[in-house]
Write a structure and sequence with these properties.
Distance between the termini: 48 Å
Number of domains: 2
Strand content: 5-15%
Radius of gyration: 23 Å
Number of strands: 8
Shape: globular
Subcellular location: Endoplasmic reticulum membrane; Microsome membrane
Strand order of the largest sheet: 1-4
GO molecular function: heme binding; iron ion binding; monooxygenase activity; oxidoreductase activity, acting on paired donors, with incorporation or reduction of molecular oxygen
Number of helices: 14
Structural class: mainly alpha
CATH architecture of the largest domain: Orthogonal Bundle
Family: Belongs to the cytochrome P450 family.
CATH superfamily of the largest domain: Cytochrome P450
CATH class of the largest domain: Mainly Alpha
Membrane topology: Peripheral membrane protein
Helix content: 40-55%
Pfam families: p450 (PF00067)
């Protein structure tokens, strides 16, 4: 959607501010009361930022709709118009939605479409980049694990460090996937997900009534000692076939679960594998800060380190040359 290319810095800032206030409201439940929150400065800030995000997404839809009309009214579209829709093997989600609207096949209102666009941007804003940074830091602090990843990469790619990563390669990177999953277990990009109950739910001696907003604590679930021995330790063997066997499928939900699971979870996993496979074939990661930094968090909808992720990269060729 090129949302990061066309003057959308304000959109990202607005979304960050909106999410930050929303997070604070969850930690102060009385602010979830509409009457009370209107008496605070939060209400004005959230309203202004929500209005800007809606305006941005509305303009995006209008521009895409204009492109679509120009393309479809001309049986021989210009290369410029053709490229905007056809330069990818698979169309963007927004393009698919616009085509559905143009063909009168879309059953969503414009308000619902804007909401979904905002949700998609929100979910993918920096979650994958943040998870990759944390994985790099963990590998820097656990050189033994990093060596095993590099041994796997060497076995798959041989000496050809420049070869592009294929789908077959990705399927063969079993241990690398275990490392990514263990990183997401310890540090899920989104530590909790909200849901609304559609019926009364009884849990032991408690009943959650229909219509309640509830939070699933992914961070706490992933550190449950009844599921993961030594839950606070970084151990990729937690996701070996032997240990994973018989484990409840919802004991690991870094992308949530069920029908509301993140639609981009497969893409995110592939992206992380590709980046790690590319970087670790060329470099060895070393920490550039104290390991205690990994316990200092800034929680703003997503988990982020207070001082950022700091690593240094040393060329593997340089290391081999010194041996």
């Amino acid at each position: 959607m090129n949302s990061q290319d066309k003057g959308s810095d304000k959109f990202i800032d607005s979304m960050t501010t909106y999410l930050g206030i929303g997070t604070q409201m969850f930690s102060q439940p009385w602010l979830l009361n509409p009457t009370i929150v209107r008496l605070t400065s939060y209400h004005k800030v959230m309203t202004e930022n929500a209005a800007y995000m809606t305006s941005f997404s509305n303009e995006l839809i209008n521009n895409k709709m204009k492109e679509y009309r120009e393309r479809t009214k001309d049986p021989f579209p210009t290369k410029e118009h053709s490229d905007s829709f056809n330069k990818r093997d698979q169309p963007l989600l927004i393009d698919s939605i616009i085509e559905m609207i143009g063909n009168n096949e879309c059953f969503f209102s414009k308000k619902e479409i804007i909401g979904e666009i905002n949700n998609i941007i929100m979910a993918g804003m920096d979650t994958t980049a943040n998870s990759l940074s944390l994985t790099m830091m963990l590998l820097g602090f656990h050189q033994d694990v990093q060596r095993k990843v590099q041994e796997e990469l060497d076995a798959v790619f041989g000496d050809d460090v420049e070869r592009s990563v294929s789908m077959e390669d990705l399927n063969n990177l079993k241990y690398t996937e275990q490392v990514i999953k263990e990183s997401l277990r310890l540090y899920p990009a989104v530590p909790f997900v909200p849901r609304n109950t559609t019926e009364d739910i009884k849990i032991t001696n408690y009943t959650i009534p229909k219509g309640c907003d509830v939070l699933f604590g992914i961070y706490s679930l992933h550190r449950n000692p009844n599921i993961y021995p030594n839950p606070d330790e970084f151990d990729p063997e937690n996701f070996s076939p032997e240990r994973s066997k018989g484990r409840h499928p919802y004991s690991f939900i870094p992308f949530s679960g069920g029908f509301r699971k993140c639609v981009g979870y497969k893409y995110a996993m592939l992206q992380m594998k590709i980046v790690l496979a590319t970087v670790l074939r060329h470099f060895t990661v070393h920490p550039a800060c104290d390991i205690k930094e990994m316990d200092r968090w800034d929680f703003n909808f997503t988990l982020k380190l207070v001082n950022g992720s700091k690593v240094k990269l040393i060329s593997r060729n340089m290391v081999k040359g010194n041996k």
